[in-house]
Design goal:
Length: 300
């Protein structure tokens, strides 16, 4: 007799993780994985960028050690879980889960998905930290679309409780359940939404940040006052202009361009945002964005 009971869907064991792209998000994601007890390999485009990423993790850990109650040994152990690798192939060769955190550009992401698919074992799940792009489209560059999923961590990933997941057209239940279990083991809660531009969080949040740039260029208020309206008035932890500087204005613009292309006119990037990015004012990471982060030079 054929059983009508639904088949129990297994959860794969995750032991080793790889993070591709050790920039703003990748370095925080690597730290989340290491704190969850996972050996975490990391790759980026050059050794210099990798070194910067690791230095950023160290600096963040120093600030956070008190709050996380870490002694020097624990801090060292945590750092030793993150292994910089010279290339993508060596980072993913024994990974059970790969999390991609490179630029918000579908062609770059598809290329990474294709390379990981070729270099990683057949069991490996490939996840993307995309903010706005389609996981089904990235999965189409692989021969394992059922093992692809979006894991949208939010900034700062090491502190934000929620990760937004999106299943692609082919994502299997096993991949989804395994990813949820992995994130729970890393201390995160999850929400799962469908594969749609900007998912839920950025579809709601980015237009508001973009509108803050329109308000600024129309001289409706100063940057500080626009931010204060949101922090003191609406209870946001950070104002939209300060938040955009923290994301990186280039990433913010890539995200708005992607939403604009997929969802229409309402999402057109503010001209001031475009202008700042063209000038190389990318926010905190370049020292200047809406606000300036250069430390004042002391006169001799
Ligand atoms: N910045 C945010 O606040 C934020 C929040 C949530 C999600 N995201 C998403 O996370 C992803 C990464 O954003 P970010 O802010 O960390 O960007 P970032 O520019 O800080 O870092 C991207 C990193 O990817 C590396 N990279 C690019 N191409 C590569 C390649 N071919 N191989 C290996 N490494 C490569 C770059 O060298 C860089 O270090 C994007 O998809 C973005 O939309 C960003």
């Amino acid at each position: 007799m054929v059983s009508r009971e639904p088949k129990e869907i297994g959860i794969m064991e995750i032991r080793n993780v790889a993070v591709i792209g050790l920039g703003t998000m990748g370095s925080q994601i690597a730290l989340v994985c290491a704190r969850g007890g996972y050996k975490t390999s990391a790759a980026d485009r050059s050794e210099d960028i990798l070194r910067n990423g690791i230095a950023g993790i160290k600096a963040f850990l120093k600030k956070q050690a008190g709050r996380w109650k870490l002694n020097a040994d624990e801090e060292g152990n945590l750092l030793s879980q993150i292994i910089p690798c010279k290339d993508l192939q060596s980072a993913v060769s024994d990974a059970d889960l790969v999390i991609e955190a490179v630029y918000e550009d579908i062609n770059v992401k598809k290329e990474i998905f294709r390379d990981v698919d070729q270099a990683a074992p057949p069991r490996t799940i490939i996840a993307s930290n995309t903010s706005t792009l389609s996981i089904s489209q990235m999965a189409s560059a692989t021969l394992r679309p059922e093992r692809c999923i979006a894991t949208h961590f939010l900034i700062p990933a090491a502190l934000t409780p929620l990760v937004e997941l999106a299943k692609g057209l082919d994502t299997s239940d096993e991949t989804h359940k395994t990813t949820v279990a992995f994130l729970e083991a890393c201390g995160k809660e999850t929400v799962t939404v469908s594969d749609s531009p900007g998912f839920v969080i950025n579809r709601l949040y980015l237009p508001m940040v973009n509108e803050a740039f329109f308000a600024l260029e129309n001289s409706i208020a100063s940057p500080e006052d626009i931010d204060r309206c949101c922090t003191r008035g609406l209870g946001y932890p950070m104002g939209p202009l300060a938040a955009a500087d923290a994301f990186g204005l280039d990433i913010m613009l890539d995200c708005m361009n992607s939403l604009h292309k997929e969802l229409g006119e309402k999402y057109r990037p503010a001209p001031l945002l475009v202008k700042l990015v063209k000038a190389g004012w990318l926010g905190r990471k370049s020292g200047r964005g809406v606000y300036s982060y250069f430390t004042k030079m002391k006169r001799p």
